Protein 1
Amino acid sequence: MKIGIVGCGLIGQKRAKALRLNHQLVAVADVVEQRAQQLASGYPGCVYFSDWRQVVDHPEVELVIVATTNNMLTPVALAVVKANKHLLLEKPGARNATELAELVEAAEESQSKVKVGFNHRFHPAFLKAREIWETGEPGELMFIRGRYGHGGRLGYEKEWRADPEIAGGGELLDQGVHLIDLSRWYAGEFDSVEGHVATYFWQMPVEDSGFMLLKSTDGAASNKGQPRVAWLHVSCTEWKNLFSFEIFGRYGKLQIDGLGGSYGVERLTYYRMLPEMGPPETTTWEYPGEDKSWILEFNYFVECIEQNRNPEGNLHDALASLKVVEKLYKLSSVDGATLPQSTSQPKD
Ligand SMILES: NC(=O)c1ccc[n+]([C@@H]2O[C@H](COP(=O)([O-])OP(=O)(O)OC[C@H]3O[C@@H](n4cnc5c(N)ncnc54)[C@H](O)[C@@H]3O)[C@@H](O)[C@H]2O)c1
């Protein structure tokens, strides 16, 4: 396919790399033109612009990847679907659910296929876990426990992620939507949302930590009358980068640790309870090396386009995750922009 990229920062570059030889990057844009130029220089024939509209309107571009700061995700995406081009939109898709709802409506009226960048579903450990889960062997879902965090970096409180106007929220919106999305993938819709967000460390007007207790009570009868629960924690005061996601079935647990790089080697462990109970049968798979989730997600999206079907990890999934985020902001009496200031000093 002929691809355009808007937003040539960290993720725009990762997305470009994931196209490999199968697709052609024909146009890129970034408000920082030098970034666009630099990215284009690695792809023969690729043109670059500082105005994103030039990528969306480029006659050859069939699919646009939008990887801007959060404030521009929806405005650019709206233009893409109105031009009936396919869209890979980075998570969280928008700054809030209201903003995204407008895009959902516009996308439904267009011919575009739309996927949101929930690449975590495509990490090999998650794909293997899903394969095991679907055999039915681990049994009915009981609950999920997920933790995701990093420790920020010097000046983190001055980056766009700390600015509510640009980001729309803090850590809950940033890494939180991945944990919510992964949990929904197993537990379905959450009709009960409890929790708390707070700013413990960073001198910024958005949260640096989010705690969630999410419950799915529909179909509860299939699980001895108990709701399916996700118990999640995200933080950018996690001084050692951490990713951990545990899925508890009645007869076994699937545990995913690490995402590669600073999060440690990606690993899936399957603990299968034996009829006599006691220590479970334990099998571990490790996935060292390059993070393939970007390639796998993109290939899946192209396959959906070719087969004219809507991808999973779409705008509806993003909207559901943003609604959970919004409920938590309300519960904590913040709107993502009015969090109490931390009293602690940032790292120096
Ligand atoms: N899928 C994931 O796991 C994942 C991981 C990190 C970030 N993200 C998402 O990707 C997006 C980008 O994050 P990042 O880490 O690459 O940030 P970044 O700051 O490295 O890059 C964002 C780029 O967008 C550009 N930009 C801003 N406004 C623009 C406009 N109007 N037109 C063109 N370019 C514009 C900026 O100049 C910058 O180069 C965010 O929405 C973020 O939530 C997703």
Protein 2
Amino acid sequence: MSPSPTAHAQSVDQVMIYIIAVSVVLLLGITAVMVYFVFKYNRKHGHQPVDIEENLPLEIAWIVIPTLLVLSMFYFGYNSFRETRDIPKDSFVVEVTARMWHFSFKYPNGKTADTLYVPVNKPVKLIMESVDVNHAFFIPAFRIKEDIMHGRKTFLPFTAEQIGNYDVACAEYCGLNHSAMYTKVKVISEKNFNEWYEPKAEINKSSVAGK
Ligand SMILES: [Cu+2]
């Protein structure tokens, strides 16, 4: 398995594995007991149904154990969700505009792009808005997804820890070409990012033009 591109992706995966593991243990356990009882208490072997009177330890067990399991799932899931709401103060802000059927990105210096370029290991905060219908910004590799609406800004933070290209998809059905509404997030080194963000040649040209 390739390393997780974000710490958040790792924690989401751990929650997922935990929930699946609990579910599998319960499924196998319950199925095994059920099948065993079908044979053990088979009516053909002379067994008759019996009304079970109050069994306090059993009742406590079937209330307490599932409650603890569900609460633990909520606890781990909520911790992982908090990571998408607690935004580092020094985050690099990129504005995302969604429209049918396209994402565009605007950087603090006014630069715009159709692809999201970000430096590796830098906290990024996306501030997102739609100019038309509802969309959703989804980076499967980072395990993050957030709705994008018209007239209301939503946000999404992430810190990419692996250089690479990752898919971005619209995850809210938004019309005819929704299924083609894809772009990429390109995580690059800080040096490459700075070269892309403020190319030297252009700075020189504009400073010459300014004189
Ligand atoms: Cu869309």
